[in-house]
Amino acid sequence: MDLKIQYNCNNINWDLVSEILKKGEMAYFSGEVHKKAFENSHTVVFVFHEDKLIGFGRAISDGVYQAVIYDVAVLPEYHGKGIGKEIVNNIIKCIPTCNFILYASPGKEAFYEKLNFKKMKTAMGLFINAEKVRDKGITE
Ligand SMILES: CC(C)(COP(=O)(O)OP(=O)(O)OC[C@H]1O[C@@H](n2cnc3c(N)ncnc32)[C@H](O)[C@@H]1OP(=O)(O)O)[C@@H](O)C(=O)NCCC(=O)NCCS
């Protein structure tokens, strides 16, 4: 498949970003909110197939030793083609000296395990919507 990878936020349809996150059952907001989040991130990766946005991910980071990955999502019709893996690996390649952490959506842990991520024993989170996050199975 002829894929194009983009490492900046130029000409992104932010409403589509919101739509893809929604389809992936991830937290989603208005396009404007995602624009701000991606533009304020250290590293962004967008994947296009024939000029159509089909997936993305981002990392917030100091650029040197710590990074957190968020919003990794691929359009459902493109799942299982190695695109999610490509997104995460490309984020890592952009800031290769960093440690990476993330919290997986429940059920998606195995995807990250295949990319060599390990479960963290002492992860702690403080969330705005604590109850919702607990109900989703992310916190105890
Ligand atoms: C999770 C997601 C990004 C994976 O993207 P994808 O392009 O389908 O995954 P890939 O094809 O790159 O898969 C890479 C490997 O992980 C495996 N994998 C993918 N999804 C998996 C899952 N849910 N459970 C277990 N393994 C999974 C694949 O079988 C593949 O294994 P292989 O290398 O041995 O062939 C995609 O399913 C998605 O967008 N889901 C909705 C949003 C979401 O949940 N994002 C993650 C939030 S933490």
TrEMBL record:
Domain N-acetyltransferase: 7-139
Keywords on record: Acyltransferase, Transferase
Gene Ontology CC: cytoplasm
Pfam families (UniProt xref): Acetyltransf_7
Domain of life where this protein originates: Bacteria
Signal peptide annotation: none
Entry-linked PANTHER family: ACYL-COA N-ACYLTRANSFERASE (PTHR43626), GCN5-RELATED N-ACETYLTRANSFERASE 2, CHLOROPLASTIC (PTHR43626:SF4)
Name of this protein: Acetyltransferase (GNAT) domain-containing protein
Source organism per UniProt: Clostridium amylolyticum
